[in-house]
Design goal:
52% of the residues lie in helices and 12% in strands. With 60 residues, it is mainly alpha-helical. It has one domain: Multidrug-efflux Transporter Regulator, Chain: A, Domain 2 (Orthogonal Bundle), CATH 1.10.1660.10. A hairpin with a 7-residue loop joins strand 2 and strand 3. The longest helix is centred in the C-terminal third of the chain and has 13 residues.
């Protein structure tokens, strides 16, 4: 499985990386992997991102 970074998610959703972090903090998006440390990188399953894009599209 190829995982995608927060930057990739931000581009796909057309939001900032900070917004991606907020989505994770709110539970709306769950990373598959979180890197070590306080500022560890998030990596996401592309299928989860596609589902979120579809959901957000349905609300606009």
């Amino acid at each position: 499985m190829n995982l995608v970074s927060s930057a990739d998610v931000a581009r796909e959703l057309r939001v900032s990386r900070k917004t991606v972090t907020r989505l994770v903090e709110s539970g709306d998006l769950t990373p598959v992997v979180r890197g070590p440390g306080l500022r560890g990188a998030f990596l996401f399953d592309p299928a989860d991102i596609e589902a979120l894009v579809a959901e957000r599209g349905a609300h606009t």
